[in-house]
Amino acid sequence: MRTLVSLHNRLFAALETTLAPILMPTLARFVFAATLMVYYWNSGMTKLGEGLTGLFQPNFNAYVQILPRMSEAVGYDASQLGAFWRLVVVAGTWAEFILPALIVLGLFTRLASLGMIGFVLVQSYVDIVGHGVSADVIGAWFDAGSDSLILDQRTFWVFLLAYMVFRGAGPVSVDAALRARAMPQTSAA
User: Fold this and answer.
1) By the 8 A CB rule, do 109 and 160 touch?
2) How many other CB atoms are found less than 10 A from the CB of residue 18?
3) pLDDT value at residue 183
């Protein structure tokens, strides 16, 4: 039995020190790109106004998605919400493009992942409180179902993002290239 335990420990210690630091952060970014990047970019696209100025003037849909109760309270006239709320909607829309791009590139990955965690939490709050999604959409932890859109699905999203907050982007990233460039060069004597 000791031989088996020893073999197990040596094998997985080798994986932990050699392969895991390269594979796991890179795989986390790949999984994010494959499952969530396009989702967020498509969501952001539904909020942009017309033309280049649409980056700064979100469309009606942006206000309804991000500020549903406030939009309803002003009769769906976004001009009544004021400059602060317009900035909130613009920032939320830009975040759907910028944060996923930073994660996929591996640039400021820890900060971008932390920002995405905040985004997912706010998104979930708006879905539950603002849009009033039903209890089956919200779901519950520790139940028989594993397919609720809020608690089950977004828990996995947050875990994936938290992994990148703690472990970074890995060696195949812009972060790693910037770190290597910032390291002092040793000269051969």
Assistant:
1) no
2) 10
3) 84
